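Subject: Interface between my chains keeps coming out wrong

I've been trying for a while to get a sensible model of this assembly. When I model each chain on its own everything looks fine, but I need the whole thing in one frame so I can look at the contacts. Pasting all components below, labels as-is. Any help appreciated, I'm running out of ideas.
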Amino acid sequence: MMGDVLLTIRDLKIEGRAGEDWLPIINGVDLTLHKGEVLGLIGESGAGKSTLGLAAMGFARDGCRISGGEINFDGIDLRKASERRKRALRGQRIAYVAQSAAASFNPAHKLIDQYCEVPVLAGIKRSKAEAEAIELYRKMQLPEPGDIGFRYPHQVSGGQLQRAMTAMAMACHPDLIIFDEPTTALDVTTQIEVLAAIRDIVREYNTAAIYITHDLAVVAQMADRIKILLRGDEIEEADTRAMLAAPRADYTKSLWAVRSFARPEQPPASGTPVVSIRNVTAGYGKIDILHDVSFDIHAGRTVAVVGESGSGKSTVARVMTGLLPPRRGEIVFGGQTLPPDYRARSRDQLRQCQMIYQMADTALNPKLRLREIIGRPAQMYLGLKGAKLRARVRELLDLIEMEPDSFIDRLPGELSGGQKQRIGIARALAAEPELIICDEVTSALDQIVQEGILKLLDRLQSDLGLAYMFITHDLATVRAIADDVVVMQKGRIVEQGPKAQLFAPPHEPYTELLLSSVPEMDPDWLTRRLRGRRGAG
Amino acid sequence: MNAVLVMIAQRLALGVLTLFVVSVVIFGATELLPGDLASALLGQTATPETLAALRTQLGLNDPAPVRYWAWLTGVMQGDFGTSLATRRPIADMLSARLGNTIFLALYAAAIAVPLSLILGVLAALWRNSLFDRVANAGALSAISFPEFFVAYILIFLLAQSGFFPSMVRISPAMGLGDKLYVTFLPALTLTLVVTAHMMRMTRAAIINLLASPYIEMARLKGVSPLRIVLRHALPNALAPIINVIAINLAYLITGVVVVEVVFVYPGLGQLMVDSVAKRDIAVVQAIALIFASAYVLLNLTADVLSTLTNPRLMRRK
Amino acid sequence: MAVLVFLAVAIAASIPLAYGFRMALMRAAPHHMAAPARDMPLTAAFGLLVILLYVIVAAFAPVLAPFPERAVVGVQFQPWDGTHLLGTDRLGRDMLSRLIYGARNTVGIAFATTALAFIVGSLLGIWAALRGGWLDQVLSRFVDALMAIPSLIFALLLLTIFGTSVTNLILVIAAVDATRVYRIARSVAQGVVVMDYIEAARLRGEGNWYLIRHEILPNALAPLVAEFGLRFCFVFLTISSLSFLGLGIQPPMADWGSMVRDNATLITFGNVTPLLPAGAIALLTVAVNFVVDWQLYRASGLKEQG
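Reply #2:
Try treating it as a single job with all components included. I did that and got this:
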């Protein structure tokens, strides 16, 4: 069933410019791809997977250079080929689908004009190319396939753009397509449709593909083989089923193990809640974002607020912190109704509820040292000074498992992403709060780092009896850490209850859709889901 | 389309409002005078009688809004009042000079705009090349030179040896060729200064644009470099380029004042400088209003044009 | 032709000078400053060297100048000779001495003006960005209205009203320039204010003054310093232009702009002396621009790596 070899890469080395120096990005990677085969490239940020994918087109981004090795596409040496020769290949025999279709479509031209550009350059008649475009749009399950091409990119939604870009890549029936994280920016319920469309079209045209992603469950659906990269080195490569069943390298095993963490089941909540959100309706200008939202959070428990973009889950946090006073409803904290605006709250009311942010980069002042960042809340709320304050900062650093002596005088810029997020946690702890709001705190991190943060938060909760409100779009995180779950859609609560109850059927239709859209590691998952849905529909 | 019309109407209304505010500021500035205009004009030696006489003559006894209204309605009908120094109608003093200044500014713009766009695009395309570095260092130096330095260097190089006149004498009877010849040096001075600014801004705008993902996408589609620039970059570059041109045409307004003085060019700028020295506030106000209006209108035009070239605004969802 | 040769010689001579200065800086710089000194382009090294020279000349003007600033020491327009190295001016004052004193007067006044414009403009701009709401709206619309008038034209209008004296000049130019500084400071501060760490500090209950001093200023400083360089160049050129027009720094104070104006007639006789003060203005502006360019490049480069 495997065709002839289409692409071979041998001992490829790529470097990136850092000031006057060149630093290695890819250090000698081999790759073989057969006709009609899909290879999944997996790696965390900085693994060099996009760079490798682009190199398969003989392309290096500005500031990067291919410094060694061979790239051979169907008998053509791409390292020696002239620019003109490579241009003739690109778009016609090797195509590319970018992560952000919204940014990668030219805002000045209609979708179909951008589709037709390559076919017309390749000598196909414009009318024929347009007819094919419409046919492809139909196959990609785009709504109104006959008209959608005549719109401008900003008039089309993100999931549709991503499919239109895949259609554009298919225009000349290329032998190879590079998919560079095509669904990473999409919501889960949109992602599943795009994944299905991509897989069907690639199979139908028997196109070979390199599918780049950081998401194991996604690649399990798409790829025949998987190659794992870590900081520019290959870790291992195997057939998808073999790799999923029995990973060999330690790094791969640790990637697989990430999904196994789960907080032990807690007894049901009792007593008065730490905080109650009561009938909150809130919004900006004339538009209401939240409609009559109510739920409780109890001490020592984690409430996960789950929803896709536009569900209003982050707005709940803004109302609770007092950044957005609600139109109706109230926030009751420890039996006491809080003033709606944070400026009217007392220092102690502010102290009780702390926040950890999604982007640790923008949540820490880059010009302050860690001792000031962590020390300030302790100084302000608890009046600690001098030696006592120093001791407290060291204690907090110990608590988040960072060595005080080597970190206390550093700036945030000298830390890794996971370490920055830990400092965000320490700053929240310094106020000795009762509730911590975690706003997508792990979604900007690599999976192994996410795991560490979740375990740390879990331990702190057990030790300090904290209440957490966890805002997330990721159901895997919910499974790992939540006690109670609140499912939100378009500003309303769809369903809420203890985790076990919520994850067991019967579900509300939206919860069902959400749960069934999260990819699983099983390579047959997508096929099964689609069969189930199409059967039901 | 309707949304765009509404937007353009809003911009135009805002432009008219800005013009109104500018006229208030220019008129109101005289109200900041420590005493009043009459005592400023006559100095400390003036007797109360002469002061009172002058106040009546200038209409200073009326409240400020009344005087503003009289001034504004006059200006609308082309009547700028009389000069305090020469007692001549200001409109007569301005008419010939306004044409001269516009001629000089257009002359410089006609050379500078195409030249700087070409240089800027080339520097962006060949960035970090020798051409780019030399062009950049040259532009940076030219920006750093005061206009009169550039002017005198040109006089030293080209006028002293008799190629071009260092003083511009023009008369209405002159043919276009002669006019272009005698005003060559002031136009060249303005061109050099403005080109440097405009080239740097064009280069920055184009580089910014070439870094966008859709340009990378076009390269990955195998589109040729020329087609990338013409079809993928240029339609999106129009708005920034229009803005660059507007900013620099507006800059000509400032540059023209100094250049006119150096070359003794009979334009508005020179008249303004003379009037400032004589503290002829009525003339200064009139010229400031003309320059400021030109500046506001230029920015307004650029604003409207860049709205019209933006597909996101032109075609709503 | 002679000018081109002179330019070539000047550029050729400044390259080793800049190179040597960079070497010296690398040696003298403390450990943590050594890396930026090493990566400094030659243009920036040259710029720093020139700025340093101007500062020295301005500080030690009375020591360095062979003759007093305002004394008539010869006949008018004397040629260059042993006593008067650069000849004398229209009134018979020593050209070199006035050039040296000019460094003190022209640069000093421009610096004071820029500093004043910066303090007023950036404090108001940061305050407006932090407070937002009606205060921001009122201030910003007011500044927009003032900025609708070209700055030189507005300065000329104000100078007509208040008269030309050094104090008026500083106040007028500072007021006009403060509007530009306000714009920039506000937009820089707005970039900082949207950061989550500002939200965190606000939710902690910090006051405005703490926010400005500890959270905003440290992060706005780098772009504002670069902007200070650019504004200085602009103010310096504006003041020189006004002086050249006879509306800025007034005689008998030695000043580069008015020195060009007073002696301009010499140029038509092929004498380069009046170009020297103009060249002195240009050289300093080029130097500052070179340093600012390097700083801006460094700021953008650091951002890409982070």
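Reply #3:
Confirming on my end. Chain C has twelve helices and no strands.
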